[in-house]
């Protein structure tokens, strides 16, 4: 039984992402670009600019990890096969007669399949990033976590910077306060794979890759089907926040209780303040007064 | 005859850009900086900031190609002779008594001579960029095109980023949709020199350098004398756009014709829509509805 | 006597910044972060974002010098001891019960001690930057000045860029016109140490480090006690500006005097113009008409 399990996970870990999983990743990325307002018009007016945006969406994570490790950001352009594949996907998505590709992509089973396959590539990217960083800084585990995270979920930073430079996006302070769900799971995966790589986790790499991929794909498909984005990680985050930062709230909470007892006018505002602080969630709005 | 031709192009290709062509390039760049609103005041109030802007205008293309290839962006500061020359040009332009240099530069023959010599340096930069990228990634032709383009025309990106950081420039989405004319000819040159470097073009490098420089200088001087900026490349661009992207327009155009026949209420809007789509130009405004 | 002096300066130059001087530097940096509006709320809502900002404040100069020399910007994350120390300072400052650390820091003697020790680290950073740049470009003195400056005072650039990306800061043109006082003294120090390193200054490195540190600490403490920010360098700056750029003002000043004599209607505006130009200060407002 164990031999069959080993066999299965090893075969899975040796699967090449090229071409089918890469195609799914490029398809999901380019469709995300197409759904931005004005993207189709940009493709008609300035195909070069549209092609460049598509390449940044497809290879953004790799570009960011190259910048972090002082490697040429243009390195992704040397992989001519993948560039040709991504460019073909871009061309077909934006210039197909009758917009057939977008219409086909609007069916949920197609979206689920593509999204699931894209999540598989995420695992490969995290593992690639962690291994690559280790070749630079042996046992530099913070660097390994950062590079794994960048390669798995960093594309959004690269595209946001470009949007900023193009004037299409004005950052609001709040946006940076909230890590998106893909970012959170990628950070989690990066930490786990770094622990495994530095031999702090008693599990083989191929077993971990298989289990983490199953986890990713399951979460992603569940979220797409149920349209619910934050179910799984919120309790875990709350616990972590209470442990590391929550005791300070408890401390000030008991102080407030003491103050309100001493000055018991019993106004509604202080009562509601005590109730608000009692939640202890990490999703508190930035305007909360302490 | 052929021997004379070879002799001439070889001598031309071995000409050093230092000092006369470099002086012309620095002069044109610093004058372009001086003509920005408020530049003279900045030079008086904060000479260091003005000097830095001037250096970015003069060496911006090289800085961008260094960033692309993960070389130190400060590498240009090690060439003390060129830095001294560019700094002297900046000092003379901004601090000459009675503003003599700006007055001299306002004469058209002087501007034509300087602009022509600057275009010669553009060829050298493209060739330098293509060769340099090839030393990093042998046969990485996309990288070679990108680095040649960056070194020949990338200065404007570096200075735009700095203007953005200084708050002097707010990007509008439309600006990035339109490649300037120097960018287009530099991209064309970069592609041609890359093809020559990878032995896909049956022409020697010195012949190509000579012919491309003649082309650049002729176009530039013609545009300055006639004040017309887009004559030469527009037909070529239209043809290319029709070939690669135009057939989709034809397809939707015949669809629209069919729809308007079937629902022939003959409103003015649909009639004008058909007329608009019939132009097929790539300079269509981004707000056009498809 | 000379032997005692040598002994003292050598011992001083061999002092390690770790841990006490580094603690002071991290404390001052994190307190500067905490005093920004909304920083405490960000720490509550998104500790990861707050921790990242704190790391950029503490290690920003090193990150900028790495970017300038095309080294991995993440290099600072490999020094686990310093990261742990800085993270602990951040945690204690933001999450201490009853905000004890901020209250302790509000006492002037504590601030003076921490600021003085932070200025000592500035000298070490400038020297480290100059030496490091020399290992890349032997005798590239402009690069050495730039890297020394970046490492000593470049943190503010890194944090400003991040603030810009977060939308918390809109750059005004004027801000970049005025170098802050720490930037000016760091530039001065960088130039001096570069001259010493290239053997143009007949002084040993440890003597220079001692004297420059005494100078920095004295200036900083004097400024904090007297609350005066620009006393010391303004006369020196004015002299330098007059020498390099002032003669042009003298020239146009005598021209103006001649013009006002010739057209002596004696209006108040031209009289005040002459008076304004006569000041010759480099702190002239950017709106001055020339």
Automatic annotation (TrEMBL), chains A, B, C:
Report if keyword Ribonucleoprotein is assigned.
no
What subunit structure does UniProt give?
A: Homotrimer; conformation seems to be controled by binding to diacylglycerol (DAG).
Q: Which organism is it from?
A: Cricetulus griseus
What's any GO biological process attached to this entry?
A: phospholipid biosynthetic process
State the reactions this protein catalyses: K(+)(in) = K(+)(out)
GO CC annotations on file = endoplasmic reticulum membrane
Q: What does this protein do?
A: Intracellular monovalent cation channel required for maintenance of rapid intracellular calcium release. Acts as a potassium counter-ion channel that functions in synchronization with calcium release from intracellular stores. Activated by increased cytosolic Ca(2+) levels.
What Pfam families does the record point to?
Answer: TRIC (PF05197)
UniProt subcellular location: Endoplasmic reticulum membrane
Q: What spans are recorded as compositionally biased (Basic and acidic residues)?
A: 281-290
In Swiss-Prot or TrEMBL terms, this protein is called Transmembrane protein 38B
Query: Which keywords appear in this protein's UniProt record, sorted alphabetically?
Result: Endoplasmic reticulum, Ion channel, Ion transport, Membrane, Potassium, Potassium channel, Potassium transport, Transmembrane, Transmembrane helix, Transport
Q: Which InterPro entries match?
A: TRIC_channel (IPR007866)
Q: Name the segments for region: Disordered.
A: 262-290
């Amino acid at each position: 039984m164990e031999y069959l399990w080993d066999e299965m996970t090893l075969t899975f870990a040796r699967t090449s992402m090229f071409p089918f999983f890469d195609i799914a990743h490029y398809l999901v990325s380019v469709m995300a670009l197409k759904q931005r307002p004005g993207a189709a018009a940009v493709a008609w007016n300035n195909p070069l600019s549209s092609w460049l945006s598509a390449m940044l969406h497809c290879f953004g994570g790799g570009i960011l990890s190259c910048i972090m490790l002082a490697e040429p950001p243009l390195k992704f352009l040397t992989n001519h096969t993948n560039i040709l594949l991504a460019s073909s996907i871009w061309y077909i998505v934006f210039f197909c007669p009758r917009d057939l590709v977008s219409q086909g992509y609007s069916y949920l089973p197609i979206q689920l399949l593509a999204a699931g396959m894209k999540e598989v590539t995420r695992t490969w990217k995290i593992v690639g990033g962690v291994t690559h960083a280790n070749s630079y800084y042996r046992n530099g585990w913070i660097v390994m976590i950062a590079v794994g995270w960048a390669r798995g979920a960093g594309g959004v930073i690269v595209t946001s910077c470009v949007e900023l430079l193009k004037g299409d996006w004005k950052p609001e302070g709040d946006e940076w306060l909230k890590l998106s769900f893909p970012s959170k799971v990628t950070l989690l995966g990066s930490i786990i794979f770094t622990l495994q790589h530095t031999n702090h986790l008693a599990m083989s790499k191929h077993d971990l890759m298989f289990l983490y991929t199953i986890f990713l794909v399951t979460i992603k498909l569940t979220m797409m089907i149920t349209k619910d984005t934050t179910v799984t990680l919120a309790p875990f985050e709350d616990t972590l926040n209470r442990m590391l930062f929550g005791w300070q709230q408890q401390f000030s909470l008991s102080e407030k209780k003491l103050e309100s007892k001493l000055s018991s006018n019993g106004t509604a505002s202080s009562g509601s303040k005590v109730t608000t602080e009692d939640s202890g969630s990490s999703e508190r709005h930035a305007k909360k007064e302490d």
